[in-house]
Design brief:
The chain is an alpha/beta fold. It has two domains: 324 residues, UDP-N-acetylmuramoyl-L-alanine:D-glutamate ligase (3-Layer(aba) Sandwich), CATH 3.40.1190.20; 102 residues, Adenosine kinase, small domain (2-Layer Sandwich), CATH 3.30.1110.20. The chain is built from 15 helices and 18 strands. Strand 17 and strand 18 form a beta hairpin. Helix 11 crosses helix 14 and helix 12 packs antiparallel against helix 15. The radius of gyration is 21 Å and the shape is globular. InterPro entries: ADP_PFK/GK (IPR007666), Ribokinase-like (IPR029056). It holds the Pfam family ADP_PFK_GK. This is Phosphofructokinase. One of its GO terms (molecular function) is kinase activity. Keywords: Cytoplasm, Glycolysis, Kinase, Magnesium, Metal-binding, Transferase.
Length: 480
């Protein structure tokens, strides 16, 4: 077994030949710490911490109620806000920091940092947004001229005056706002919804098959960035258009497509995404809270007897929750007709699949994602491959190993210290950082890192030492 650093270097080296198309949402996240200054800026909600967010958020009072609800629940949440409230926040509230936001933007920064080759499309690309790309010279933008896609340097695509800004209100356990104490370390996001975010990309929509022919895979997100005000005919026609574009993207052959699911309080919007978009993916990325909501929306008949309540990110961790997650994922995968659903829970990562890439590739992708997630949580950013050494310093979760061992027993399969690899179920423990530098985007880091490494492994030879795992992806001798 080679030293851990050499193995990580080899894993990174496998990514250099991977090209990925990313769309649709990139924005600037304005970070605000929840404190007394924020309380003075907001208006006292009627019942702090009690009611879920109204949609869209239209006032400082609405915003205060939404933040306190997330604090009481101890679970990250997001809601759209009106253009008027977005303008008010931008004019009157000062951010403590700003960073890249939006799933496609966050995943682009990671893909470029790891040495892969991203081609990224987003609706609004202003100078302010451009400044949030860590390595813009490594990113190309798909420009269409005379029906032909010509990737150009990202700097050449800057053409918007407006910037999409999401406001991220971060809090830690014990923080207080209007008498409500936070029960966990997470955040509430007040998301702007500019009219430009309507899932129409002009000439690129008709020429998107040229992108599909040129890349190894696609990481897609942002299908939730619609509001009734900006989609006059309803969500269905817009998502049908997006579905047709997705089909055209992969029309040239076997292009792997990952859709990063984001839930919303708008039930009609969730239903439209589940009907028109998710079934077109090869793999869907999801967290425990999103899984619970998607599963509830599907109204599937699944036996969870003996499991207790459906677990979410806010539930106290119990190893048996993995059995519920497995049954829910299995039912949803079959209902949606996708090849794979990949769950990133706090203590473990779990993939349930049918005819997706090899279980070996998926397992190594999940192990790699655990290192990347720990790095993001500990450092707040990943800007270079060597940053991942930070993630290796955090041990795989003992609770995650216990949960995976329990799932293995349930399936009648063998697990090696929390490492489960079967033809249809793959699980790896996460590496948990107790005091994260930030919480936004960790799920996107998990999905992007696992997906690009899966593509790299599927596209080239692997070195197997007989245990079903390639040493090039293992962090150390204890790495699953």
């Amino acid at each position: 077994m080679e030293p851990a650093g050499v193995q990580l270097e080899e894993a990174i080296g496998a990514l250099t030949d991977v090209s990925v198309f990313l769309a649709y949402n990139a924005n600037v996240d304005a970070i605000v710490r929840v404190d007394s200054d924020l309380e003075a800026f907001l208006e006292h909600p009627d019942e702090p911490g009690t009611d879920p967010p109204v949609t869209p958020l239209a006032s400082r009072r609405d915003l205060a109620g939404a933040i306190t609800h997330a604090m009481a629940a101890g679970r990250g949440d997001e809601a759209a806000m009106t253009d008027d409230l977005a303008a008010t926040l931008e004019a009157a509230l000062e951010a403590d920091a700003q960073q890249m936001g939006g799933q496609a933007g966050i995943m682009t920064n990671l893909v470029s940092a790891l040495g892969a080759s991203p081609i990224t499309y987003t609706y609004l690309l202003s100078e302010r947004q451009f400044s949030q790309f860590d390595d813009p010279d490594a990113v190309q933008y798909p420009r269409v001229e005379d029906g032909q896609v010509r990737p150009v340097p990202l700097a050449d695509a800057v053409d918007a005056e407006r910037t999409k800004i999401n406001w991220v209100f971060e809090f830690r356990e014990g923080d207080e706002l209007f008498g409500v104490q936070a029960t966990g370390n997470t955040r509430f996001i007040a998301a702007s919804r500019p009219p430009a975010f309507d899932l129409h990309a002009g000439q690129l929509d008709e020429a998107i098959d040229q992108i599909g022919d040129a890349v190894d895979g696609a990481l897609l997100a942002g299908y939730h960035n619609l509001t009734p005000d900006h989609v006059e005919a309803g969500y269905g026609p817009t998502h049908r258009h997006a579905r047709d574009v997705l089909r055209r993207l992969r029309s040239g052959g076997d292009l792997e497509v990952h859709v990063e699911y984001v839930t919303t309080h708008d039930e009609e919007l969730r239903a439209s995404i589940a009907e028109w978009i998710l079934p077109e993916a090869n793999v869907v990325g999801i967290d425990a809270h999103e899984l619970a909501i998607l599963f509830g929306d599907a109204d599937l008949d699944v036996d969870l007897e003996g499991i207790g309540e459906v677990p979410t990110n806010a539930s106290p961790f119990e190893p048996r929750e993995i059995l519920a997650h497995y049954r829910m994922l299995e039912a949803l995968r079959e209902d949606l007709g996708v090849d794979c659903i990949r769950l990133h829970a706090m203590e473990y990562h779990l993939a349930v699949m049918d005819s997706y890439l090899s279980p070996d590739a998926v397992g190594r992708g999940l192990s790699f994602a655990a290192v990347a997630a720990a790095t993001k949580a500990a450092r707040g950013e990943i800007t270079a491959p060597e940053d991942l050494e930070t993630g290796l310093a955090y041990e795989p979760s003992a609770d995650g190993r216990d949960a995976i061992d329990r799932l293995a027993d349930h399936l009648g399969a063998d697990a090696d210290d929390g490492t489960l690899t079967t033809p249809t179920v793959v699980a790896r423990p996460n590496r948990v950082v107790d005091d994260p530098a930030g919480t936004v985007g960790i799920g996107d880091i998990v999905s992007a890192s696992s997906f690009v490494l899966e593509l790299a492994i599927a596209g080239g030879p692997t070195e197997d030492d007989g245990d079903g795992e390639s040493d090039t992806v293992r962090g150390d001798e204890d790495e699953p």
